[in-house]
Amino acid sequence: MNQPRVLTEDDVFELLTFLVTSARGCVDEPETYGTFRLIDAGSRLLGFLLKGEEVQDREFYVHLKEEIDERKFLLVTDLEAYFNFLSGVTRKVGKQLKKRAESQGA
Predict the structure, then answer these.
(1) Over the range 86-106, which residues count as b (16 or more CB within 10 Å of their CB) and which as e?
(2) What average pLDDT does range 64-78 have in this prediction?
(3) pTM here?
């Protein structure tokens, strides 16, 4: 059986700091910045996951993180493309969720 993954205290504090300051930033920033902060947090979380040696769906996570990191800045250059990117990422994660559920017999 796989051992549960545990983030280090430093990892958790880094993500916590990012999320807390992001929440405060969302008060004064344009509303679309909140979406950027959330997708960036997803990338950070994937970075923590990928530090581990045993990652079942490593290829999926690597490609997803690369896509997020490459396309998240569309927010400032092409809002329509950015929204399409968010929809695409959501679809990819949904397909992966279905694949995982099917492999677990759910």
Answers:
(1) beebeeeeeeeeeeeeeeeee
(2) 97
(3) 0.86
